[in-house]
Amino acid sequence: MLIISEIFGPTIQGEGALIGTPTVFVRTGGCDFRCSWCDTLHAVDKKYKDDWLTMSAQDVFEQVEQLSGGKPILVTLSGGNPATQDLSELIKIGKAKGYRFAMETQGSVSAPWFAMLDHLTLSPKPPSSKMRFDQVRFDTSLHNANNTNISLKIVIADHTDLEWAGELKSQYPKLPLYLQPCNLELKNTPSLEKLTTQTLNLVDEVLKRGWFDTSVLPQLHVYLWGNEKGV
Amino acid sequence: MLIISEIFGPTIQGEGALIGTPTVFVRTGGCDFRCSWCDTLHAVDKKYKDDWLTMSAQDVFEQVEQLSGGKPILVTLSGGNPATQDLSELIKIGKAKGYRFAMETQGSVSAPWFAMLDHLTLSPKPPSSKMRFDQVRFDTSLHNANNTNISLKIVIADHTDLEWAGELKSQYPKLPLYLQPCNLELKNTPSLEKLTTQTLNLVDEVLKRGWFDTSVLPQLHVYLWGNEKGV
């Protein structure tokens, strides 16, 4: 059985390599991390666990199917940390019906079924998160993902994060890298001026360093929907 | 010799498949079209032609090289319509030094050197532009681009445009399609609320039609820089 925080969509992916792509989100409940600036605490903090549902993979897929009107769509597995649960059955059921699967995870937990994904976004957490980066586990995630389309997405809150991203960038030069300004304003109507300033600063820093193979993208969904849940 | 409107960067690409990617823009002067909502009239309207420069391909490349500090970067050829000039020499010089080239053009004019590009964005103009779509010429552009990474980007101003995009989508199902709300506010400080509303409406329309392989992206540079030139 799977622990699910929310299933919603269709909407568009708001960040990273697949930005702008129509998708249904399956957000699992539970996380092995507790990042200082987590923007999905409702899927992380155990105090919300009464809101989480226990569902079979078949039930989850049926809900996805209903949301997409039975038409195959990209399913984005997110969390919390979706890698802490065995999602292989869900992926298997969906792929048999032509659905594609992307997953967003920090790389702290991995499993052989990563190879079944169509796209894997690894988002290792930088120092500002106050979480520890375990490179062995991260490498195991990469290894498990095998030939899956992989991209690296790093949230940047400050200069230390940026230097840290630079180190990772040198260690994994072949992974497409996306840097994303950290959403520090988690109230319902965040200041878009602040998000814009953060993005512009990040663009400047990246260009100043000559990181011309590194993309910078803000969270588009924050521009479009603020911090509203379920969109 | 090449007619150039502006060369600027490094900045990030603000739209389409390469959104967020660091790049230097080479904007050529002159266009065979005159779209009703053109947002780069300074590179299109002949009344601005005294601002355009006549430069050799070598001079253009040297300016790009200076802007990027001699470090290879993606060069985005835009306009006006860059396809109305022979850019093969510029691409050849740049590629010899490791630079990559993307081009944005409507597909009304094509040339064999399209095959030298690393990425081609074809942005055929919808009915609201008041321009005529010539499918034979469009197909010749596709043919010339050969194995180049091609994507389709269509600006959407109204429902007629959307229906038109739907027809093109069925005719070219294998081309990745990006829909972009039309920037109708060309003053220096456009209303971001309006841009957001337009984007949300476009997202709704795309999802309602079940176009799950069609991406929707606003012009990120308008969020970041308004309608400022040269960024």
Automatic annotation (TrEMBL), chains A, B:
<dbReference type="InterPro" id="IPR007197">
    <property type="entry name" value="rSAM"/>
</dbReference>
<keyword id="KW-0671">Queuosine biosynthesis</keyword>
<dbReference type="GO" id="GO:0008616">
    <property type="term" value="P:tRNA queuosine(34) biosynthetic process"/>
</dbReference>
<protein>
    <recommendedName>
        <fullName>7-carboxy-7-deazaguanine synthase</fullName>
        <ecNumber>4.3.99.3</ecNumber>
    </recommendedName>
</protein>
<keyword id="KW-0949">S-adenosyl-L-methionine</keyword>
<feature type="binding site">
    <location>
        <position position="35"/>
    </location>
    <ligand>
        <name>[4Fe-4S] cluster</name>
    </ligand>
</feature>
<comment type="subunit">
    <text>Homodimer.</text>
</comment>
<dbReference type="InterPro" id="IPR024924">
    <property type="entry name" value="7-CO-7-deazaguanine_synth-like"/>
</dbReference>
<feature type="binding site">
    <location>
        <position position="31"/>
    </location>
    <ligand>
        <name>[4Fe-4S] cluster</name>
    </ligand>
</feature>
<feature type="domain" description="Radical SAM core">
    <location>
        <begin position="18"/>
        <end position="227"/>
    </location>
</feature>
<comment type="pathway">
    <text>Purine metabolism; 7-cyano-7-deazaguanine biosynthesis.</text>
</comment>
<feature type="binding site">
    <location>
        <begin position="123"/>
        <end position="125"/>
    </location>
    <ligand>
        <name>S-adenosyl-L-methionine</name>
    </ligand>
</feature>
<keyword id="KW-0408">Iron</keyword>
<keyword id="KW-0411">Iron-sulfur</keyword>
<dbReference type="InterPro" id="IPR017742">
    <property type="entry name" value="Deazaguanine_synth"/>
</dbReference>
<keyword id="KW-0460">Magnesium</keyword>
<dbReference type="GO" id="GO:0051539">
    <property type="term" value="F:4 iron, 4 sulfur cluster binding"/>
</dbReference>
<dbReference type="GO" id="GO:0000287">
    <property type="term" value="F:magnesium ion binding"/>
</dbReference>
<comment type="function">
    <text>Catalyzes the complex heterocyclic radical-mediated conversion of 6-carboxy-5,6,7,8-tetrahydropterin (CPH4) to 7-carboxy-7-deazaguanine (CDG), a step common to the biosynthetic pathways of all 7-deazapurine-containing compounds.</text>
</comment>
<feature type="binding site">
    <location>
        <position position="27"/>
    </location>
    <ligand>
        <name>substrate</name>
    </ligand>
</feature>
<feature type="binding site">
    <location>
        <begin position="12"/>
        <end position="14"/>
    </location>
    <ligand>
        <name>substrate</name>
    </ligand>
</feature>
<feature type="binding site">
    <location>
        <position position="40"/>
    </location>
    <ligand>
        <name>Mg(2+)</name>
    </ligand>
</feature>
<dbReference type="InterPro" id="IPR058240">
    <property type="entry name" value="rSAM_sf"/>
</dbReference>
<feature type="binding site">
    <location>
        <position position="80"/>
    </location>
    <ligand>
        <name>S-adenosyl-L-methionine</name>
    </ligand>
</feature>
<keyword id="KW-0479">Metal-binding</keyword>
<dbReference type="GO" id="GO:0016840">
    <property type="term" value="F:carbon-nitrogen lyase activity"/>
</dbReference>
<keyword id="KW-0456">Lyase</keyword>
<comment type="similarity">
    <text>Belongs to the radical SAM superfamily. 7-carboxy-7-deazaguanine synthase family.</text>
</comment>
<feature type="binding site">
    <location>
        <position position="78"/>
    </location>
    <ligand>
        <name>substrate</name>
    </ligand>
</feature>
<dbReference type="GO" id="GO:1904047">
    <property type="term" value="F:S-adenosyl-L-methionine binding"/>
</dbReference>
<keyword id="KW-0004">4Fe-4S</keyword>
<dbReference type="Pfam" id="PF04055">
    <property type="entry name" value="Radical_SAM"/>
</dbReference>
<feature type="binding site">
    <location>
        <begin position="37"/>
        <end position="39"/>
    </location>
    <ligand>
        <name>S-adenosyl-L-methionine</name>
    </ligand>
</feature>
<feature type="binding site">
    <location>
        <position position="38"/>
    </location>
    <ligand>
        <name>[4Fe-4S] cluster</name>
    </ligand>
</feature>
<dbReference type="InterPro" id="IPR013785">
    <property type="entry name" value="Aldolase_TIM"/>
</dbReference>
